[in-house]
Amino acid sequence: MYRTVVKGFITAAVLAMAIIVAGVSAQAQSLQYKLTVDIPFDFQVANQKLPAGKYSVGRAQETSGDTVLQIRSIDGQSTTNRFSIPIVTFNLKNRGELIFHRYGDQYFLSEVWPAGGGTGRAFLKTRTERDLERTARENGVAAAKAPKAEIVTLVAVSQ
Q1: 81-98, pLDDT tens digit by residue?
Q2: What's the whole-number mean pLDDT along residues 94-104?
Q3: Structural domain spans, the chain
Q4: How far apart are CA 110 and CA 150, in angstroms?
Q5: Which of 3, 87, 120, 153 could bridge 113 with an S-S bond, Cβ 3.0-4.6 Å?
């Protein structure tokens, strides 16, 4: 009986530690701390066009999760709040990153990755981006498969 009780306490302690470690890990991977990035080109997020400049990216509300992200210019002139979906990679990110898809001179914000984790946030492709892919496909560019956008990665600094 004594052995069963001790075994139960040890199991509970190990489970509690696993939950704590998972919580700390998730916090490090989240966008609780805003990212700051200098974007040298005009770009689109969802269906909103934003001018080149310095931006902060983080939670729309400090107390909420990462589902709704706010992309805001440092000068306060441009702001948008957009829904995002979680994406996961096994290659942990050592730095914060913003991933853009480029078609000619048009850039679309695709992913946001906070430093220190393997969970990022993605935005769905806009109608404009899908139309650009379709046009390229119809013009014979990579006719066998959907054309690949050029991937542009910008390093972001955590605040």
Answers
A1: 999 999 999 888 889 999
A2: 92
A3: 1-30, 31-158
A4: 12
A5: 120
